[in-house]
Structures are given as structure tokens and as C-alpha cells.
Amino acid sequence: MRISDKLLSLAERAERLVEERWKEVERTAERNQWKVIESFRRHQVSDFHFNGSTGYGYNDRGREVLDLVYADVFGAEAALVRPHFVSGTHTIGTALFGVLRPGDALLSITGRPYDTLHKVIGRPGDGKGSLQDWGIRYAEVPLNPDGKPDWDAIREALTPDVKVVAMQRSRGYDWRASFTVDELSEMARFVKSIRPDIVTFADNCYGEFTEEREPTQAGIDLIAGSLIKNPGGGLAPTGGYIAGRADLVELASYRLTAPGIGGEVGSTLGTMRSMFQGLYLAPHVVGQALRGSIFAAGLFELLGFETQPVWNAPRTDLIQAIRFGREEHLIEFVQGIQQAAAVDSHVTPVPWDMPGYEHPVIMAAGTFIQGGSLELSADAPIREPYIAYMQGGLTYAHVKLGVLIAVQRMMDKQLL
Ligand SMILES: *Cc1c(COP(=O)(O)O)cnc(C)c1O
Questions:
Q1: What CATH number has the domain spanning 51-269?
Q2: Given its phi and psi angles, is residue 228 left (phi above 0), alpha (psi -120 to 50 degrees) or beta?
Q3: Which CATH architecture has domain 5-32+279-412?
Q4: What is the DSSP string of 273-304?
Q5: Which of 85, 201, 205, 361 to mutate to test the pocket of ligand 1 (most atoms within 8 A of CB)?
Q6: What is the pLDDT of residues 148-184, one digit of tens each?
Q7: CA torsion sign, 245 to 190 to 146 to 354?
Q8: How far is the CA of 169 from the CAs of 53, 151, 224, in angstroms?
Q9: Cα within 13 Å of Cα(258), Cβ side
Q10: Which superkingdom heads the taxonomic lineage of this protein's source (predicted)?
Q11: DSSP 12
């Protein structure tokens, strides 16, 4: 893994360029670390909370306290944090199915949701038990060309059957800016000013701890996210969380298990220690990943590529998009990230038709937790204009290495 002197000095230039932004990231990590520890203190987290339970998992005190801690940290009335959520999609689906009933409508106001949610929304009569198959109508308001909400269209789309208005914080696989907590808050206020009874929901995946506030601290009723992303701190082996208004979290709990059972059962086996410790580490690790994303944005800008967000833009999620314009660059980039991994560095990612995605996708994921994307990873749908989305990194040094190897590969192949 030879990195040329020319590239190393370019990397130094990029680091000097982005230094000021790094300081802001440090500040956010510090404040969020304090917030998490304060909550652990308030709930007197103790060694015995880490033991876990078996069978029904009645009176699993660790599980109960973890719910309280999450609720606290996210400024929510309640939270449901479980290893039984198999993924972010499952978690978000559980929240939506928990709250919506046949005859209701779900309205997305931030355009098309993340790819894996398309089949959760489904089509009427698809026979899969999707939201629309259950008679829940779905509508979406595309974003304006500038990536901002289309206020007039949102107002018009708020028909009487709309019960949940959904927003997505992170850009996902879109070349738009992600929505800051302030922007989500503005959208929620707008919706409530027209229809105070509507439930506002935010897909919070990739957003946690990138700002000092979460959407639930800014007027959003319900959020959901994955524990193999930010709040798991790289340690949680699986799981998801739902947080927000207590009545809504309760409804989601009936969907996760069964009506009448809800969140009061569910053995946690051996997952509790890593879920607590992961949450404790999450603010710091998210800060490391953000440092890496900002560095990558700075370096690729120096190399003449377009990035989103640019290095000096405010961050509200982990995703760094780089527009390569050519498939060759994109594939070198993703393979370079894989080559830098501590796990599975010897495999070469190639595009494949991944379940839940609509285009072939190439993914670099050399991770300790399978698919864990708080760990350094990169994905790209193989479609024009060949944008790579990189995210995560448990340590800044690792992200830097990954980016440098990727660029070195392009240089070696005379692509730069
Ligand atoms: C990752 C992600 C999801 C889905 O999570 P999975 O764990 O991949 O199912 C949903 N929305 C956004 C914005 C995401 O980043």
C-alpha cells in the first residue's frame, strides 16, 4: 500500500484546508458525549444492566434502562431500542405500520424515500403486506430543483386522510443536501400549522450525533434509526431504535411484538453491554467519521471533483458524496476503500443486484459488523453520473488511509 509523496503532500494541504471545520466537529462530539454521560448518570447505569436476559425477557432491567437513556439523549418521551430490529428498514417499517391504519395516508415531503423503503411502501394489491397493500395510501411531494421543500405542493398534498408526514434527514443515494435538524423542524412546524393532528416522522438514519440536537428535540413526533449506523458506536451487533411521543412509541412496540405485549418482553441475550457501550462511544466515533468525510471532500475538491456536501458546508449526516462522472473512477474508488479495510481487505467488490435496490450496486464494506456503516464503507449505484457515497470510519486515520489508497489507485491507472 504505497502512497506517493505527491499524494501525501496533497493530503497535508487538504488537512490544512479543512482544519477549521474539524474544530466544529470536535465541539459537537464533546457536547454529545456530555449529553450521553449525563443520561447514563441520571439513570444510574450499572454493571448488572449489561447481563441481558433469555426467554421472554421479562423485567430485563438493562433493556428498560437503555430505552430510558435513549429517550433522554434524544429529548423524547419514550424510546424502543431493540436487538430484534433486523435493520433500519425494519425499524422504520415498524414505526410506520405501528401508527398507520387502513384508510390513512402517508405523505413523504422530502421526495422519494431511501431505496429499501420502496417495497415497504409497496403497491396496492401487491400481495406482500406492504403499506399500500394494507390500504394505506402513499403520496410524495418531490423536492424543488434546489433540493428544498416545495411548500405550496406540501400544503396541497395535506388531504384529510394524511395521518403521517415523513421526512428523510439524510441524502441517501441522492445528490441533494441533507436536511439539518433546523430544516426538519421548520417542515414540521409548517405541517402542524395547517394540520396540528398530523404525526411527523423523520427517518434519522446516519444523522444521530452529527448535530447537538436530534429531530425529537426540535418538534418532530417520531424518529427511527439503525444501531449498525451512528448510535451503535460501531459496537452494537445489530438492532434499531424508535423514539418520540410515548403513545406512538407504544403503538410501534405492538407492531414489533404483538398487541398487548409491546416492549415489555424481548430477551436481549448478550447484546446489552455493546449497546450501552456503543451509545457511549457514538458521539466520538461519529466525530471521527465526520472528520474523515470532511477530509475526503477537501481532497477531492483539490483534485477537481464535485463533492456533496462540500468540505466547509454544515453537516447533518455521515454521507459524503463524490461525483466521479466516469465508471472507472467510481470502481477504483470503491475498491480502494475495500483495500484499506482491516477486515476483508483481500476481496474485490464488484457490482451486483442487491435485494431492495433498483440498480446494480457496488459496495465496499470491510467491517467487523456485517454491513455496519458507521464503519468505513462506500456504496454506489452503477448509474450516471457515477456518484460514490462513502460513510463512516471508526477512526479518522482509517478513513484517511482508505481515501489515499483509492486516489493512489486512480493515479496508478493514469485516471488522474
Ligand atoms: C440505511 C438507511 C435506511 C435503511 O437502513 P437499512 O439498515 O439499510 O435497512 C433508511 N434510510 C436511510 C436514510 C438510510 O441511510
A1: 3.40.640.10
A2: alpha
A3: Alpha-Beta Complex (3.90)
A4: HHHHHHHHHHHHHHHHHHHHHHHHHHHHHHTT
A5: 205
A6: 999 999 999 999 999 999 999 998 878 889 999 999 9
A7: positive
A8: 34, 17, 11
A9: 4
A10: Bacteria
A11: H
Task: Return all residues near 125 (Cβ < 8 A) that are at least 6 apart.
Answer: 133
Question: Which amino acid makes up residue 146?
Answer: D
* Atom 2 of ligand 1: nearest residue by CA position: 205
- Cell numbers for 185, please give them: 423542524
Tell whether ligand 1 has an atom less than 6 A from the beta carbon of residue 178: no
The two domains 5-32+279-412 and 51-269 share their CATH topology (first three levels equal): no
Cβ-based neighbours of 361, under 8 Å, separated by 6 or more? 351, 352, 353, 354, 379, 380, 381, 382
Ramachandran angles phi, psi of 194, nearest 5°: -95, -45
Ligand 1 within 6 A of CB of 91: no
User: What pLDDT does residue 295 have?
Assistant: 98
User: In a 3-state reduction of DSSP, which class is residue 352?
Assistant: strand
Nearest CA to ligand 1 atom 3: 88
Q: Is 230 in the pocket of ligand 1 (CB under 6 A)?
A: no
Asked whether 330 and 410 are in contact (CB, 8 A), the reply is no
Three-state DSSP string of 32-97: HHHHHHHHHHHCCCCHHHHCCCCCCCCCCHHHHHHHHHHHHHCCCCEEEEECCCCCHHHHHHHHHH
Q: Are strands 105-108 and 78-82 parallel, antiparallel or unpaired?
A: unpaired
The residue extents of the domains of the chain are 5-32+279-412, 51-269
* pTM greater than 0.70 (yes/no): yes
Mean pLDDT for the stretch of residues 352-356: 82
Write out pLDDT tens, residues 279-311: 999 999 999 999 999 999 999 999 999 999 999
The three cell numbers locating residue 145: 430543483
